Amino acid sequence: MAASGTDQARVCFATLLTTDSYMHGALTLAASLRATGTHHEIICLVADGQLSRSALERLARAFDRLVTVPLLNTNDASSLALLGRPDLGSTVTKIGVWALTDYERVAFLDADTLVLASIDSLLCLDLPSELAPGDVHVGRDFRANGGMLNEGLLAAAPDLGWPDCFNSGVFVAKPSDATHSGLLSLLATQGSFDGGDQGLLNAYFADWSRADHTRRLPFAYNTTSTSFYTYAPAFAHFSSAIKVVHFIGAHKPWKWHRALDGSLLLGCTAATPYDSNASPFAVFVEKWWNVHDEYVSLWSPDKGDFNADVALSLSEQYASADVLQPSTTPQTVLLPSSHAMDDAWKRAGTDYSNVEARTTDNDGWSEFMPASDFALSPSTSGPSSSHASSVQLHRNAD
């Protein structure tokens, strides 16, 4: 349940969805945040026109607020090919975080993250008298703006692939119109050096690695899955301190195969159970599924043989209406957008031709209402075609 009073309008956790394909990640992230006992608002940014109606209805039950943002895309095929992720061009939509000016601070997490312990300290606006072990307080400047040229980034963790860059899967931001405009301008004029949001954000906040240490989150707040293999001794030593695990790469937890009893199979294709000693990463995938099975899925271990179609269903609505009830006051808001093209191909080739399309006359999505109270009880789950909203920004030739 969202916090009441002034805190609700000032700070929040946020994530982003540009397609239905990451919806189970977002739902599981929200549940993992609730499980830490947070009272802060949890919102979801949704790319205008890109998600199905049923997905939006389900997200509205899990999040306190849905915010519609215009779809952005770098269309930088060459950089994305070098990155090995041609699907990440639309992640620059994430810069809509800085347009959330009714919040003083936003802790953003990608939809492929899982929260293992409380990270409420990221949203503390006042320096607490004491911090719990492992907690950090961000944004207390030794120099103005932490010594950084551009405002708007309060803290982020280093990227394992290039530690002078921060990983943009988890960060704390201070929204402002000036920062949002600056990011849009940089995207339009120079693009992103990796074709996705991380290259753009690191170019805009280029002096992050030289800023005061309050701008640096510990790696435990954004532990990327590659660290499980590249520095195994450190992972073994510090794994108990991990607060947020980030499942980077193409093989997301919801793509792992599972046996009939719901147990994980090694990797995405192997037909043998995983060995936790040989595959420590799988331990965290299992944690993800534990949260998903308890709070998100239509399937749970007590319902018989595992059925992926049921566990990852997008078409079912919540069967138990008394578990999660929508409020009567819509809180969904809209940021400016423009309509250009239909990106239905992003939804894995699913045929939406027989479902009523959403018109673009009213982008307020007033019919989608957030949960007035979210109780962490096992629940059952809940794509229409829509005219996509797409602001296509191409990288200029040098």
TrEMBL record:
The UniProt record lists the keyword Coiled coil: no
The enzyme's E.C. designation: 2.4.1.186
Pfam families linked: Glyco_transf_8
GO-annotated molecular function: glycogenin glucosyltransferase activity
Region (Disordered) residue spans: 374-398
CDD domains, sorted: GT8_Glycogenin (cd02537)
Biased composition (Low complexity): 377-390
Keywords attached to this entry: Glycosyltransferase, Transferase
Descriptive protein name: Glycogenin glucosyltransferase
Gene: GLG2_1
